[in-house]
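Hey L., structure's done. Input below.
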Amino acid sequence: MAAIPAAKDYSRANILQDATELVGKTPMVFLNKIAEGCHAKVAVKLETQNPLSSVKDRIAHGMISDMERSGVLKTGDVLVESTSGNTGIGLAWIAAAKGYKAKFVMPASMSLERRVLLKALGAEVILSDPAKGMAGANDLAAQLSKKPGHVWARQFENPSNPNAHFSTTGPELYKDTAGQIDTFVGGVGTGGTITGVARFFKGLGHPCEFVAVEPAKSAVMSGGKKGPHGIQGIGAGFIPKVMDMSLADRIVTVKDEEAIATAQKLAQSEGIFCGISAGANVHAALRLARDPANAGKLICTTICDTGERYLTSALFKSTTDAAKALPITTSV
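Output:
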């Protein structure tokens, strides 16, 4: 009988145990061409470098890990969430890696790419009435959570959401900027990013301004009425429990067309291929950077997700149509 080879020792190998260990530690870059003429420097954190290309991978990992530790989520359970797409995608790939089934409720107005990604990751997708926004998706998720073995992640009220940013995004921003960050701009979907980051910096006693961004068409944090808008990922139509309004030093609104135009400019002038909410973040950051009162400051924000999630949306629809219409060329 052939001898059984000794087991190899991989302790010194540069191989991670699984993809969840890749969440976070995303790079930062300065904006250059798009920020020409600004009085302040603008730097963005490329959350597109997470495993499934969005900032929501952070909270998905945090929520699932915390639910497992507390015994709320067990083997055989079905993970449930209401999502505009990215949180669901984050939860879906981690659920797949850990062996959980998953069901997600998403407004039908979200991009086709998001539905495809969720289904490709093995999740069940339930579309809700787009006129009811995220509140309608939440209602259906609540109904699902009453079924036996169904566990609702509750991203809009789960403290694990901001805690993920308190323990990862905040410290990374401080380290990446060598403590020189002056302003953080954060689009508010659940409010987890800006709440967690602000808590971290305020805990340090570090002087930093925190600016919350919301759609002009659904400016509920500014005291306006909720309404349909085109900035997928932010502007849920209500102020989530996760969002600590006391931490926001100011609130700015961004129009749909401003967010879209900025995202397109980021692709064409900076080579940063991102989604509409990242366009909103950067538009707001550039608005601040153009203010002489902010001269010499460092303004930071996040590139929330990849533009590949928006090829059929208003962001790149004309580009997609033009690509489909390209003729076949036989000589040049």
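DSSP finds nine helices and ten strands in the chain. Strands lie at 28-30, 41-46, 78-82, 101-107, 124-128, 150-152, 183-187, 209-215, 250-254, 298-303.

-- N.
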